[in-house]
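Much of what follows relies on a compact textual record of a protein's fold. The record below shows the convention in full:
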Amino acid sequence: MARPPDPERAAARRDAILRSAAALFAERGFESTSAAEIAKAAGLSSGSVFYYFPDKRAVFRALFEADLPAARELVARHADGEDPVASILAMVDALAAEALDPLAPGILVEVLRQAGKDPELARVVTETARVQHEGFAALVERGIRTGAIDPTLDPHETAQWIQVVIDGAFVNADPDHDPRPMLRRMITRFLSPPHDPAGDAA
């Protein structure tokens, strides 16, 4: 009689494959990494990858598929914060924390290379960015209404620049240097309403 599948064991093996794949993709690149090498690094037999994933591209794509629900959860968690600037900075902290991962620069390079070859990967990455963008834009718009953010800023353009700054933390990632304090400082100053000397004199 065949032994019934063990969901926990399957999940653990799938996670092991993804961890090993991330390290190899970051170090060698997608094209130079074989499924057999991924399986070996995960401590599994050479054909194990294809038991859990239809192909190597699906493995790479899976590294980013969890980002979309995570982005939705992050935006929802901070959407109604009392202080919109504090909520923006909390989102920036959460997103930039991943830049501390030593694999971040290599994975970023590979996702830029592979998105043009994999429409489904491109869709996931684009949708994740869109969710983050809309979350930032809504907070900027609310901050403008409450007077906490410079009213001359366009919410969507501002959201785009916030994302550019976060992306810059990944491009220049250094696992020994936390970029978040500088990001908070830059973005806080960027969002601050113009200083009014006349108001101080009054």
